[in-house]
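WARN no homologs supplied; continuing
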Amino acid sequence: MHPILHQIHPVLPVQNVLEALSFYVNKLGFKIAFADDSKTPSYAGVIRDHIEIHLRTHDAKEWELTVERPMLRIVAQNIDYLFQEYNFKNVFPKDTKVKITEWGTREFAFYDPYKNGLTFYENHLTRRN
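OK structure emitted
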C-alpha cells in the first residue's frame, strides 16, 4: 500500500485562544471545530470549507521575543469575493490589495492579531512549457 497524505492542520501560537477564536469566527468566517475547554480554552481548532487551523496558547514571555511567526498560504477560489468579504469586515489594513505575482498567483496577505501571517491565493496563469 502506498501512504497518502490528506490534510495539514497548522497550529498557530496565540496569546489568548478566546480572542483568537473570536477573530477567526467573526472576521474570517470560520466555525469552531473543537476546544479543549468551553470557558477558557488553551487549544482549539477552527474550520472553514476544507481548511482547519488549530490555535494554541503560548506563554506571554514568548511574545516579548522577536521571532518570526508562521505564514500560512491558503489556496482559495473566487479570491476577489473573499477579499471583498474580509475588506467589508475591516480584517486588514486599508492598503491591502489583491496582487498578481511573478509566479502566477492572485493573492492578498495580512496578519492575524498575533502576527501569524495569512495569505489567500488562487492560480492566475497556466504554466506553459
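Residues 78 and 120 are 10 Å apart (CA to CA).
OK
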